[in-house]
Automatic annotation (TrEMBL), chains A, B:
The protein's name: LacI family transcriptional regulator
Keywords for this protein: DNA-binding, Transcription, Transcription regulation
One Pfam family, short name: LacI
This protein's record includes keyword Transcription: yes
SUPFAM superfamilies assigned: lambda repressor-like DNA-binding domains, Periplasmic binding protein-like I
The keyword Nucleotide-binding is annotated on this UniProt entry: no
Residue intervals of the HTH lacI-type domain: 5-59
Origin species: Kribbella pratensis
UniProt xrefs under PROSITE patterns: HTH_LACI_1 (PS00356), HTH_LACI_2 (PS50932)
PANTHER family from the UniProt entry: ALANINE RACEMASE (PTHR30146:SF155), LACI-RELATED TRANSCRIPTIONAL REPRESSOR (PTHR30146)
Length: 340, 340
DNA sequence: ACTCCTCATTAAACCGGTTTAAAGAGGAGT
DNA sequence: ACTCCTCTTTAAACCGGTTTAATGAGGAGT
């Protein structure tokens, strides 16, 4: 409760000027080693930690990074990606004394408003650009705002920002090959909204791999990554005159919901219908039957993104893109040979 | 990209002093209306927004609130509470120009370290104390750190902080009465870790209601709120010589995992076994069979908590506790009459 | 002994706001 | 015409750091 010590207190105690304390703290050359020791000792005795606020003002940095997420429960709630991603980000930030500022955009406004607010308030030194879209308007906006960023996934247009990528395709290819290997020929897909880069990446990998096997999709339904969307799409697929014997979902939430829909329709999974998801969310392992899915590592993704963004923020030019180990197939009980 | 205007620019343009601009902006009395208008017009023309950093330094406030969450994927990942809660918090903060700072504590450290860091860095003006524990040591810590807080749930010890509560008991009572009404007499519970206030609240409400019906629990297993824990607990219950005909889980994740475990054991839910959860998470509605559960409103919880914490932060003394509408029962297909 | 350099240190300005104490301008009262 | 008040406005200090330009102290060179 007693007032925290300031740099002036430390200077007084060490018998030097404020400037010297600042130099010592920041390891600037030009101070005698003995003086540095004296200052650091004094700082230590007083338990002094430089004020973030003062530093922020004088060096014009926020020492914080920002993440904008949409309030839409569909995207936000129970999405297994963000929590782990955030944990990975924090694991980097905490070692650097940085903070993570969350900006949730509410239903009424556009996601861009979130970035605008962060920039306007100068709350952060850089932001993560997640759920990248095709011709993503946010890239131009951030350039305009002068806010450094890192994109999660590689944008298709020009981008001045480094990209941290995790290739979804090998996992998708593996799922399709797994299904084809089991003997399926009537395979359908529930894709994510085509506006998202990762949704179409998974989607085209799916179609291409099928084509390579001489097959084509029974149908491609578009879901919105929510459980409700998964249910809808599944019902449409099952109502087809010749329904698929296997369905590949663009994420686990839709897959688990689809699993429920199939069971509710009286189908046995996997005997009547094989189901595969994407994400390897916590529940994937524990539903019945266990969900065959594709596992990425959002924690590492967060780490890599934070490190990369910090290089940009630190003024590093030409920060290279980072490519993470690709997502890989996890086979569980929800996939089996098709019915005869 | 051009430098953003400062208060000095506005002052110059309006032909007044910096101080007057500050007064006008903050609606301080003592300025002629005409002057205020002139200043606001100048500010508007320049598109000036006061610098948060400068304001932070001079008024010693961060204009931000903090939320500490543990990195433990068990608590963090796919927990339906936090995302919605955070959205509610943000809906209040965004109207006040405040930010939400997330502090994730990594595996190696204690949750207290998270609060300590937030306080040390003076990053926030107050924090949310979630997942309250019995004799929660964080309350003393925050008092010591001089960091204002609001507790989510009412602590059992003394606390100088207002509490925002959402009574889980009515929902729990309703679940038990629902099961008893269906004819169940062999009811078991998978409780949360007893260290948590909300876990024991649900647990004792469960036992008390059973007792009021002249019954006692077949067994009470303790889970850890994770899907894996739900599986474990369920297996133990099903292995009992006289297994329960209904299981009440302290959260949906354990319940959905338990549902999977029961189905994997060859049981039909709800014919052989009724299952009820708690949270009404997104998937609860879509698994098969739909999960009977208890619904709270984490978004409102977040709103109320943010508003209450802000009152404390603003220096309001004796901020009253806030009681939210209680959680309520949602009946779906996973509960039915017990087997004969 | 005197100049010149280098190295260590400091005083002061600065970041962009808020706040306090004091000054200035009018108007009323006598 | 002079004093006294009230209402506006401002100059300057302050928040707690960083940074630049200047100063001071030794030591080497001649």
């Amino acid at each position: 409760m007693t007032k925290r010590p300031t740099i002036a207190d430390v200077a007084r105690r060490a018998g030097v000027s404020k400037g010297s304390v600042s130099f010592a703290l920041n390891g600037r050359p030009g101070l005698a080693q003995s003086t540095v020791d004296k200052i650091l000792a004094a700082a230590d005795e007083l338990g002094w930690r430089p004020s973030n606020r003062a530093r922020s003002l004088s060096v014009s940095k926020a020492f914080a990074l920002g993440l904008v997420i949409t309030r839409d429960p569909a995207v936000l709630s129970s999405d297994p990606f963000f929590p782990a991603f955030i944990a990975g980000v924090e694991s980097v930030l905490s070692t650097r004394g940085q903070a993570l500022v969350l900006q949730v955009v509410t239903a009424g406004e556009s996601e861009e408003d979130g970035y605008r607010r962060l920039a306007q308030d100068a709350r952060v030194d850089g932001v993560f650009l997640s759920d990248l879209r095709h011709d993503d308007p946010r890239i131009g906006l951030l350039v305009e705002l002068g806010l450094p960023a890192v994109t999660l996934n590689r944008p298709d247009g020009d981008s001045p920002f480094p990209a941290v990528t995790l290739d979804d395709r090998p996992g998708t290819v593996a799922v399709v090959e797994h299904l084809v290997g089991l003997g399926h020929t009537r395979i359908a897909q529930v894709a994510g909204p085509p506006a998202f880069v990762h949704a179409t990446a998974r989607s085209t990998a799916f179609t291409d791999t099928l084509a390579a096997a001489g097959l084509e999709p029974v149908a491609v339904e578009t879901g919105d990554f929510t459980a409700a969307g998964g249910i809808e799409a599944t019902r449409r697929l099952l109502a087809l005159p010749e329904p698929p014997t296997a369905i590949f979902y663009a994420n686990d939430r839709m897959a688990i919901a689809g699993l429920g829909a199939a069971q509710a329709a009286g189908l046995n999974v996997p005997d009547d219908l094989s189901i595969a998801g994407f994400d390897d969310s916590e529940l994937a392992e524990y539903v019945h039957p266990g969900l065959t899915t594709v596992r990425a590592d959002p924690f590492r993704f967060g780490e890599a993104a934070a490190r990369t963004l910090n290089r940009v923020v630190d003024g590093d030019t030409d920060v290279p893109d980072v490519e993470l180990p690709p997502a890989e197939l996890v086979v569980r009980r929800s996939t089996a040979a098709p019915p005869l």
